[in-house]
Amino acid sequence: MELVGKTIGIMGLGKIGLAAAKIYKAMGMEVIAYNRSENEEAKAFVKYVTKDEIFEKSDIIDLHLPLNDQTKDIINEDSISKMKDGVIIINTARGGLIDEDALMAGLDSGKIYGAALDVNKTEPINDDNPMLAYDNIIITPNMAWGPVETRQRLLEIAIDNIRAFQAGKAKNVVN
């Protein structure tokens, strides 16, 4: 699927959501967002909308919300019914944001084209979780941040910190 011209709806525009919004905008996507407050920097390229507008207008919905009483199962049978046919759902935030039964029903009906989940309600995911049988769900083990290059960079930072400490020039010190 070509992303240029598609509408991405970001739910939760904190630091991570804002960083994602910048990437999506650079890919030529229209970026809309639902958030408790508006970020002045984001207003230059993000259109703030209501929760229902996210569901109704988005080709892709990207979740960056905390899990609380207001956000638990925010993706549910009702919200899915408001979504465009063929929507894609991405969740790298909290597993409890999605009602997994409603997600699978949406996938079965074709309402949802696919999902990318780095988090699930039960972690680690149970071997008998029916979502594992879906070809149109990508599930990562709550570490989508961990490509080989990222882990290598983290090791290099740790080694550099140790060497600096040994040389009497500690850095990245937490007080």
UniProtKB/TrEMBL annotation:
Cited InterPro entries: D-iso_2-hydroxyacid_DH_PdxB (IPR050418), D-isomer_DH_CS (IPR029753), D-isomer_DH_CS1 (IPR029752), D-isomer_DH_NAD-bd (IPR006140), NAD(P)-bd_dom_sf (IPR036291)
Domain of life according to the entry: Bacteria
Keyword presence, Lyase: no
Xref: SUPFAM superfamilies: NAD(P)-binding Rossmann-fold domains
Keywords associated with the record: NAD, Oxidoreductase
D-isomer specific 2-hydroxyacid dehydrogenase NAD-binding domain boundaries: 2-144
Protein name: 2-hydroxyacid dehydrogenase
Species whose genome carries this gene: Anaerococcus kampingae
